[in-house]
Amino acid sequence: MDPVQEEVHRVESDAGERLDRYLARHFPEHSRTAWQHLIAQGAVTVNGRPAVARHPVQPGQIIAWPVGAAALLEAELAGQGPVEGPDLSHLVIYEDDAILVVNKPRGLVVHPARGHLGDTLIEGLLHRLTPSPEAPALRPGVVHRLDRDTTGLMVVAKTETARTRLAAALQVRLVHRAYMALVRGHPHPREGWLEAPIGRDPRNRQRMAVVLGGRQARTRYRTCRVWPGYALLSVELETGRTHQIRVHLAAAGHPVVGDPLYGAGPELGFPAQALHAWRLEFHHPMTGAKLAFTAPPPEDWAPAARQLGAGETVCDEPDCREVLARFQALTEAGA
Question: Where is the RNA-binding S4 domain (predicted)?
């Protein structure tokens, strides 16, 4: 599960140019007016601090803004902001006055973005959220996200107070999220940390990559079971960068099976990445009560589970036992 993701750009030259002009020149797909509005909302930071449009950029500075925000703002300025979409209440596994927990399926985009207006998770839940003038109009209720083809658990805030508190908890790593991932090859060592900075791939802006000057990123993994050429991992995030798990595992030589962006694409019956957020734990933003949720992987994992067979279990830690139980259930369901 990722926090609300950011575009990150490192200034290499153009010392002294105004921030709004710099962004409009380097990212001309968005108008200068859109950048000015985004800056005025406090959504654009320079070295981690909100900036003003007249800020003179300097080489080495890091400029960041929410992924998709500029495109969404263009749409909003044109009168095409988020609209209530098809009812997605069937995805809700927990709800109270402050939060929703949902089990997101594959193929569902979390928040409105270019090419996705009216068909997103948030728009499908708008009727269950409490409007607030303080809430970000482009992302009501969004605390974090999952990639379109990553499945599993997410928490959505129903009120702005709940959203603010959950976002703060996420920043100080009090929201615990665990994934199961099927990958190519056998990681060595079998468990450990992947630590490498992540930023926009300079050769392909649709991808992220391990890059010098990227944002610190840390991923923990354990190998639970292996087969010839494949391994099932338990993965936990300490940070939450865009595509973090997928980028770190690919950089380590073990791309997620089915990943169309960082791996070989569809494989073993997976139409996209075999990555599922199966566990989510956090304290309730209003009551402080500890909440824990789990969700089994979707049915499109079953063909791979049956094809791979028993394999060799190489970890007996509690998280691996739980991951293996869910994977084994898929095998038995298809027997």
Answer: 17-74
